[in-house]
Amino acid sequence: MIGLISATAAGAAARDRLAAAWPDRTRVYDGPVPDAVRRAFAECEQLVCFLATGAVVRLMAPLLAGKAADPGVVCVDEAGRFAVSLLGGHGGGANALAVEVGEVLGARPVVTTATDAVDLPGLDTLGLPVEGDVAGVSRALLDGEPVALDAEVTWPLPPVPFADGPAAHTVRLTDRAVEAGPREVLLRPPTLVVGVGASRGAPADEVLGLVEEALRDAGLSARSVAELATVDAKSDEPGILAAAARLGVPVVTYSAEELSAVDVPNPSAAPLAAVGTPSVAEAAALVRGGQLLVPKRKSAMATCAVVRRPGRGRLAVVGLGPGARDLLTPRARDELRRASVLVGLDQYVDQIRDLLRPGTRVLESGLGAEEERARTAVAEARAGHAVALIGSGDAGVYAMASPALAEASDDIDVVGVPGVTAALAAAAILGAPLGHDHVSISLSDLHTPWEVIERRVRAAAEADLVVTFYNPRSRGRDWQLPKALAVLAGHRTPDTPVGVVRNASRPDGSARLTTLGALDPATVDMMTVVTVGNTATRDIAGRMVTPRGYRWQEAAE
Ligand code: SAH
User: Fold this and answer.
1) Domain range 2-112, CATH architecture
2) What is the longest distance spanned by two Cα atoms in the chain?
3) Which residues form the Cobalamin synthesis G N-terminal domain (predicted)?
């Protein structure tokens, strides 16, 4: 039993929400708080106190008997922001309780015991239906005990710190109709596609009965059914729609033309005449690939077939921004925590390592090795994992997105998360240099012949574009920047403003506003971007400003 104790009106409101959510697990202790605490402490295995931690510590100190005897205690603050595991984190189950209370109240669980496993997604928050001993296996994870993953099918799960070998606790990823054993949780991935066909007016009970029987005979779980698939002509067939609704899955339809092209074991003449494809159930189940587990079965008015479609891997290409933590977007943070495999350059991995969840497999490599990183990320996604490939700034700007997507085929899902690229980070520091048309040019001639780069610089000069140079200068590459600046100087006056920003948003960052005539290229390195204004750009109060429209500028002159 969980004892609930509160002192204030806000505390009582939160207490009542918890009591309403868990009517059978909780008991409210009213009356004077010290007395309520004493009684609950003696009578309950766990306590949730809607009180300050200090108050609870003072009240409980005289009652403490030892780790094995004391209840697990969670404190929730007045505003309901935090659920603090105060006492009995492991033995008393307070860590797990803090997580559970947090989920009910929208409070953040605060756990201070020395296991990093607290930053775990709950097994029931992985996005898949769960069965079995969720509380016991969750507690084992929270306590850092080994939990094995037994994956019968692939699915891009978020990171969970599973043990390498067999363990007392197990999470089984399965679409088969098995029962959870002791100390086992079953996760039900939506891997099954049921193709259905039906004559007009086929009763819902018949369609559903046929589907359920097919699943049962094949030893498959209805909880792993992702969708019912059929031909367009049956998209409003009431029996199919009702059967899907009762299974809690959508109906997905395909054109007769698309279905005709699918190679099936049991084509027949009847559907060809009726809807224009020799197979509905088998073809609709197989059209997006997979393995046919149940070939076509028939009842009087319906047909069905079942296919297993393993989970598609997921590749998130994530830009980390220029360096500062608060320039990393919340979406990027979510994707980093969603991925069970992280691929990136070691120095970028260091930038975000603290955000990763325990159980994340980190594949880091040194400078260079770009193609290999891209290949690794795609290969991991192809193996069915949730992968994040990271890059600084925006991962699509002179970075990993293009080599990765060049490598990827349509057998994985790809998600891009934009990041604040160096040109924007630098511009915000300099003022408003990108207020009109602008271009970025990389001066690295590693992958691009210099003639091509120079031609583009010349075009930018002639078009009077503001130019941001990435990769402007390195130890072995020192003549390109002066050359590029000389090309621009052919079209712009020596007093054209130039911004030089080094390590934008990083601790040792610096920025300088100078001019095309005065810039000393020796002060520029690979940590720097150089932004050259156009003929309208001005230094206004030490800020680099490119007017938005030249009409405005003409009026001002
Ligand atoms: N994907 C990155 C760019 C990679 S190319 C982005 O979108 O920002 C590497 C070049 O980016 C460096 O040579 C430098 O010119 C520039 N750069 C990256 N981060 C920077 C920062 N914080 N400050 C200044 N320049 C940076």
Assistant:
1) 3-Layer(aba) Sandwich (3.40)
2) 88
3) 36-116
Give the pocket of ligand 1 (CB within 6 Å).
322-323, 391-394, 397-399, 421-422, 425-426, 470-472, 501-506, 526-529
Please say whether the beta carbons of 309 and 193 come within 8 A. yes
Q: Is 110 helix (H, G, I), strand (E, B) or coil?
A: strand
Task: Report, in angstroms and rounded to the nearest whole number, the Rg of the chain calculated over CA atoms.
Answer: 31
Nearest atom in ligand 1 to 501's CA? 24
Q: What's the token pair of residue 145? A: 């005990």
Closest atom, ligand 1, to C-alpha of 396: 1
At residue 201, the pLDDT reads 96
The residue nearest atom 12 of ligand 1, judged by CA position, is: 471
Fold of 192-308: Nucleotidyltransferase; domain 5 (3.30.420)
How close is the Cα of 347 to the center of ligand 1, in Å? Answer: 13
pTM over 0.85, yes/no: no
Predicted pLDDT of residue 116: 47
Q: How many residues does the chain have?
A: 557
Residue 543 forms beta bridges with which residues?
540
Cβ within 8 Å of residue 409, ≥6 positions away:
none
CA 485 – ligand 1 centroid, Å: 19
pLDDT (tens digit per residue) in 256-286: 999 999 999 999 998 998 899 999 999 999 9
The dihedral over CA atoms of 53, 356, 335, 382, expressed in degrees to the nearest 10, equals -140
Domain definitions of the chain by residue range: 2-112, 123-187, 192-308, 314-420, 423-553
Give the start-end residues of each E strand in 113-163: 130-132, 147-151
Asked if residues 196 and 214 have their Cβ atoms less than 8 Å apart, the reply is: no
Q: What's the CA-to-centroid distance between 451 and ligand 1, angstroms?
A: 23
Q: Find the 446 Cα to ligand 1 centroid distance in Å.
A: 16
Which CATH superfamily groups domain 423-553? Tetrapyrrole methylase, C-terminal domain (3.30.950.10)
Most ligand 1 atoms within 8 A of CB, residue of 351, 475, 529 to mutate = 529
Which residues in the chain show pLDDT less than 50? 116, 557
Ligand 1 atom 17: residue of nearest CA:
422
The correct answer on CATH 3.40.1010.10 for the domain covering 314-420 is yes
**Inter-helix orientation angle 53-60/33-43, to 10°:** 70
Which residue is it, tokens 């992968």? Answer: 387
